[in-house]
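Checked the freezer inventory, then went back to the computational side. Two predictions to log before the end of the day. The first one is the construct we discussed on Monday; recording sequence and tokens without edits.
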Amino acid sequence: MENPILKVSNLTVAFGKEIVIDNLDFEIQKGDVLAVIGPNGAGKTTLFKALLGMIPYRGTVAWAAGVRIGYVPQRMEIETDVPLTVYEFLALRQSAGFSREKAEEAVASVLLPKEILNSGLGSVSVGQRQRILIAWALLGKPSVLLFDEPTADIDIRGQESIYQLLHHLQDKYNFTVILISHDLNIVYKYAEQVLCLNRQKICFGPPAEVLSPEQMQHLYGGEHAFYHHLGQHGHQH
């Protein structure tokens, strides 16, 4: 097997005396899609912050040499009434050598019309804004994309179109994807590997092999929580 694009060893994150991630190990190969699942408070977003070097941690996060990381947050982290057009927002990401042509290519890559560049950032829909965040990340020509619940605020139809877009982009650019998701259908459909996280690693591997009812009960805290979770998301594969 080739060298992994990411190898995490003995990763521990604590805030004061509270251990949020405890002794986590996993690795991911180039071009794979890894889904991170687990209940609220399991440490999923904390894991992303550690992978991005945004918070202190113990252990090792080893990215392959030359990796460029793109990050798409769960939602826009700036006020949406900021008087910025979509074009001006994208220009903030890549001010040196940025051009109208690059902006048009960026929005075309996420299947948005070039006319959206003239729209105010606060006037576009939530789904369009999420695509614009993906375009922003793509401007950095990443080899790895991290998505923190990329469809958290989007309706069901919009969610499916976002994941279809990610699949299309991964086929086109062959980057590695690590995403946090609560939707088991998406995990089965798009992910080669799944990391079940509840402060510790509960399971890791191909979804069809590791997402047994027993593991899901362990992950989500008992039978009732497990069936409630499946009832929300319609477990199929």
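The second is the one RB wanted added to the comparison set:
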Amino acid sequence: MRKTPTLAFVADHTPAARAALKECVAQFGQARQATADAIVALGGDGFMLATLHRAMNRKVVYGMNLGTIGFLMNEYAVEDLPARVGRAKRVRLNPLRMVARTSNGRRTTALALNEVSLLRGSSQMAKVRVLVDDTERLAELYCDGVLAATAAGSTAYNLSAHGPILPLSSGLLALTPISAFRPRRWRGAILSGDSQLRFEVLESRKRPVNATADNREVRNVVEVRVQKADDRHVDVLFDAAYNLEERILHEQFAT
């Protein structure tokens, strides 16, 4: 951005975020989202993720952290904010597209910037067939669940499930089991970002499974297809000190 950008502020409902919204609007005004050069999101990771979904294919987003971790956000500071936004580095993220089919035949499509996950829906462990590019890779995966994560999302749920951290520029996908019982030694896979994944839920009546794309849940799925959505993107702005590539690299050496 060469000129001083116009900013539209959005905030979570927490007291800290609402106070920050009042402070920012008092200093810099409030542009309409339709005409603003950038949306500034004030809140935590969950609010930032929701804002990114709403801004998909439309606006760039600059987040300021008022939550706990704020992995996709910058430090909260109002000093010289428009200039900071103007200097920020733009990172383009492509989401995954999930197409889930339920036991009653209904199909649901949803996007995920972090991950698509399948999770058991009862006390019974899930039993899932896994195919990559129409080739069967696992005939039967007994597990609490399995997820496919983007590079940007590889430090979120995927990391908690002991999946690999992926460099942002790699364009790879992480395929990670959640508490796998069988095959006992399978710990997941790293796949091309263009891979087409298909999960078939076996014994779905006895072993119900729910699928989630970020925060969109579909219950009682029997098949889930996942692949990169090349036609969808969101642009996220980062200060030089909060470079996303460096954050992901840093996580690989965290102790």
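For RB: The longest strand covers residues 135-143. The first helix runs from residue 15 to 28. Let me know if you want it refolded.
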